[in-house]
Amino acid sequence: MQFDSAAITQENYRIFVDFLKIKLGHDLGEGKEYLIENRLNPVCEAQKIANVNELAKEIKNNPYSALGSLVVENMTIQETSFFRGPRVFDNLRKHIIPKLIKENVYSHTIRIWCACCSTGQEPYSIMMLLMQDFPQLENWNISLLATDVSENALTKARSGIYSRFEVIRGLSTDLKEKYFLETPDNQYQIRYDLRQKVKFQQVNLLEGFYALGGPFDIILLRNALIYFAPEVITGIFQKLRGAIKDTGFLILGESESIMGKTTMFNLPVEGTDYFTPAPLP
Fold first, then answer.
1. CATH class of 10-75
2. 3 state SS of 79
3. How far apart are the first and last CA of the chain?
4. How far is CA 25 from the centre of its chain?
5. For the chain, domain boundaries
6. Do the domains at 10-75 and 86-277 have one common CATH topology?
7. 1 contacts 49 by C-beta, under 8 angstroms
8. Fold (topology level) of 86-277
9. How far is the CA of 13 from the CAs of 36, 40, 92, in angstroms?
């Protein structure tokens, strides 16, 4: 069948909106037809489907098909970079990690969860920070779990292979030379010993968090909640509270707040932008 790139109709747009809310909890809202067309036209062309309207019909008839999985993969946001948001890493370096070292001085254990990690730059950045700035943690049990709903993103994250542009975006020359090896095709790969310190796992935030290996000292869920429906956000915060230690730290995106969304976490104290768990009833 020949691909014709026809504009999506409102009826078929609603099919995708409902599908993504059920599958991911994402609230696409109104006026994002261009996003559907930009991201799913390549799927139509590759799968020999005439246009996104025909794709919508296929999804409606069989939402659990391999085609449905392709739609989820292509609609998942994957924007990230190494050491994205320097203030977050300053907080980790100056406040959070030193507090956890004191808190866990006897157990010598720190558990970290990077949710919605995309292609892995965030968890690798955290591990580089720990190795670079906290050599006293060398013999500690550092558990770093990185999760995402996209298996394609996780495949890249596990490989630790990034383009030259991705590596220079956020990384100093010293860190690049210390933690990366250049590949024959002029890309860069994270050193094996660093890759082995991060566990990548496919997780949908609509599911339970009980089997993830918590409770965690740090949970990062950055720049993700803005895509979720309000009722989904409430449920996510409830599950996050159950997955974090009472003495733990929750880190959201720099422009994200918990105001009006949950009472299960405390607002940041002056001079910081991380959240701490509120006492459970």
1. mainly alpha
2. coil
3. 59
4. 14
5. 10-75, 86-277
6. no
7. yes
8. Rossmann fold (3.40.50)
9. 8, 12, 41
How far, in Å, CA of 28 to CA of 208, rounded? 23
Q: Cα–Cα distance between 17 and 22 in angstroms, integer?
A: 9
Cis peptide before 215 (omega within 30 of 0): yes
* CA-atom Rg of the chain in angstroms: 20
Q: What is the DSSP letter of 225?
A: G
Tell me which residue of 138, 129, 143, 137 sits closest to 93, measured CA to CA.
Answer: 129
Residue of 10, 103, 12 lying closest to 57 (CA atoms): 12
Residue type at 132 in one-letter notation: Q
Q: Cα separation of 186 and 157, whole Å?
A: 18
Q: Which residue has the higher pLDDT, 185 or 28?
A: 185
> For the residues 184-189, what does the mean pLDDT come to?
95
Q: Residue 3 and residue 47: Cα distance in Å, rounded?
A: 10
- pLDDT tens digits, 89-141: 999 999 999 999 999 999 999 999 999 999 999 999 999 999 999 999 999 99
pLDDT digits (tens, 9 = 90+) for 54-102: 999 999 998 888 899 899 988 887 779 999 998 999 999 999 999 999 9
What's the mean per-residue pLDDT of the chain?
92
**What's residue 16's pLDDT?**
93
Residue 76 and residue 24 in contact, taking contact as beta carbons nearer than 8 Å:
yes
pLDDT tens digit string along 191-207? 999 999 999 999 999 99
Q: CA-to-CA distance for 181 and 187, rounded, in angstroms?
A: 8
DSSP SS3 for 156: helix
Nearest to residue 267, comparing CAs of 257, 280, 253? 257
Alpha helix positions (H), the chain? 10-24, 33-46, 52-61, 66-75, 86-91, 97-103, 121-133, 151-159, 164-168, 173-179, 192-195, 230-243
Residues pairing with 110 in the sheet: 142
pTM: predicted TM-score of the whole model, two decimal places: 0.90
